[in-house]
Design brief:
By secondary structure, this protein is an alpha/beta fold. Helices cover 55% and strands 7% of the residues. It contains 16 helices and seven strands.
Length: 359
């Protein structure tokens, strides 16, 4: 068995649940660290293998299924609360990422766990949206003036909002990448192609190609890879759901060119091929090849991401894993901010970690 049992299970078409006790422990540890335990349980359900799992590990998978089901009911309730809280705000409310997958009934929502709900509104409606959410009980816990400025001037979202009673969290965005980012995306371009959610007046999701590109740039521009494998699986499932639509690939590649997201899309497809043997249609091979970064950058990213996309678990670590993740963390900041902002920001973060403020 490979040390990365989790990916072995996903990649092995003839997988059977025949593991030792120690291997089950490693598999569940990897799945929990990757937020994929419920997805692992659904994989067994889909292959009609859950009943073949030994009595010891089976309750862990069954419990994960119940937890995921309960969370999805809670998220649907929260989305309806958000819709009602914002009914007086004259702007479309766009759900992003996990909440969008769930409310649009996409396959990648199966077994997904949630820590927050992401929504997007036009930049000039951020204040009115935040005020309406405040009136409904969502407040910001951010009290540091520098962090407030960092979010509101340099980021694509405001500080997270927490509901004072239910402790649910909302991330309120005005675009999908920081305005200072190398991969800066104009939020107005996203709004032109949004699609309404049936049964939820005023709520929308991004167009299918924009969902794919958002997932790709979120994964490959972020510096934290604790959920990297889950996010890559999201991409895999999004492609499976959407590539059946007529003209999907042509629209996707043209949209990547329009939004300047060719490089994140290239990295996404490279690692989908490597881990899941996902191969785009051959007729698009030439256009995809034009998105390829220079050979040195491609080789370095392949090496770093090959390590970072492993489950964040001791059984999957090599001597180079920490270095690869640190380099990707540094790269993510270099992509998000120009040097004249980045250097002071990182120095301040280092100082605050060394000398944190007392509550």
């Amino acid at each position: 068995m490979s040390p990365n049992l989790l990916m072995t299970v996903w990649a092995h078409s003839g997988w059977r649940p025949e593991l030792s006790v120690r291997e089950w422990e490693a598999l569940f540890g990897q799945a929990r660290q990757s937020s994929l335990l419920a997805r692992l349980a659904y994989l067994h359900v889909d292959k009609d293998l859950l009943r073949d799992v030994p009595d010891g590990p089976r309750p862990h998978l069954e419990g994960a299924l119940r937890l995921a089901d309960r969370q999805q009911h809670e998220v649907r309730w929260e989305v309806d609360c958000i819709r009602r809280a914002l009914h007086g705000v004259d702007t479309p409310i766009i759900l992003l990422k996990g909440a969008a997958y769930l409310m649009a009934n996409l396959s990648t929502a199966r077994g997904r766990l949630f820590s927050d709900i992401d929504i997007l509104v036009p930049h000039d409606h951020i204040e009115s949206t935040e005020n309406a959410l405040f009136g409904a009980g969502w407040i910001s816990d951010e009290r540091d003036a520098y962090n407030e400025r960092y979010y509101r001037e340099w980021m694509h979202e405001i500080p997270p909002l927490r509901h004072i009673h239910r402790q649910s969290y909302i991330d309120l965005h005005h675009t999908i990448t920081p305005p200072t980012s190398r991969f800066k995306v104009d939020g107005q371009k996203l709004l032109r192609n949004i699609q309404p959610l049936a049964g939820y007046p005023g709520l929308f999701v991004l167009a299918p190609v924009d969902m794919v590109l958002h997932s790709a740039v979120h994964l490959f521009q972020e510096g934290e890879f604790g959920h990297g494998l889950r996010d890559l699986l999201d991409l895999h499932d999004l492609f499976k759901d959407f590539q059946k639509q007529p003209g999907f690939w042509d629209t996707l590649l043209s949209r990547a060119d329009e939004l300047g997201l060719q490089i994140p899309l290239f990295h996404a497809l490279f690692h989908l091929r490597r881990l899941f043997n996902f191969i785009p249609p051959l007729q698009w091979e030439d256009r995809l090849g034009k998105m390829e970064p220079n050979p040195l950058s491609r080789a370095l990213m392949a090496w770093m991401l090959g390590l970072a996309l492993q489950p964040n678990h001791p059984s999957c670590d090599s001597r180079w894993t920490k270095l690869a993740r640190w380099l990707l963390y540094v790269r993510s900041h270099a992509l998000r901010m120009p040097m004249h902002l980045l250097v002071p920001h990182l120095l301040r973060k280092s100082w605050m970690q060394r000398f944190p403020k007392k509550p």
